[in-house]
Amino acid sequence: MAAEVGPYITWEQVKKRGSEHYKTGHIEPIDLIKEGGMLQDFAIANIIKYAFRNRRENGKPKRGDLEKIKHYCDMLLTMAE
Questions:
Q1: Residue 23: what are its φ and ψ, rounded to 5°?
Q2: Of 79, 81, 80, nearest to 39 (Cα)?
Q3: Which of 15, 39, 42, 73 could form a disulfide with 34 if both were Cys (CB 3.0 to 4.6 A apart)?
Q4: CB 40 within 8 A of CB 66
Q5: What is the pTM for the complete model shown?
Q6: What's the 3-state SS for 5-46?
Q7: What are the φ/ψ torsions at residue 76 (nearest 5 degrees)?
Q8: Phi, psi torsion values for 15, nearest 5 degrees
Q9: Around Cβ 54, how many Cβ atoms within 10 Å?
Q10: What is the pLDDT of residues 30-67, one digit of tens each?
């Protein structure tokens, strides 16, 4: 997952960085979550989950968890644009 720079990230850019196993059907689950008005709560809950899980690794941050936190933060940024 490559990181985007700057506050102006699009929804399509965020979706491209998502896991491939969610992109097997015609409608991606994240689109259903967004259209159902649940994206903000979903993203915040996942940020908390990955932040909490990250602190378990011998005090050393796990890059993968930090990338996921950034990914969910970018979802929130698309809502703020």
A1: -110, 35
A2: 79
A3: 39
A4: no
A5: 0.70
A6: CCCCCCHHHHHHCCCHHHCCCCCCHHHHHHHCCCHHHHHHHH
A7: -65, -35
A8: -65, -35
A9: 17
A10: 889 999 999 999 999 999 999 988 876 577 788 888 99
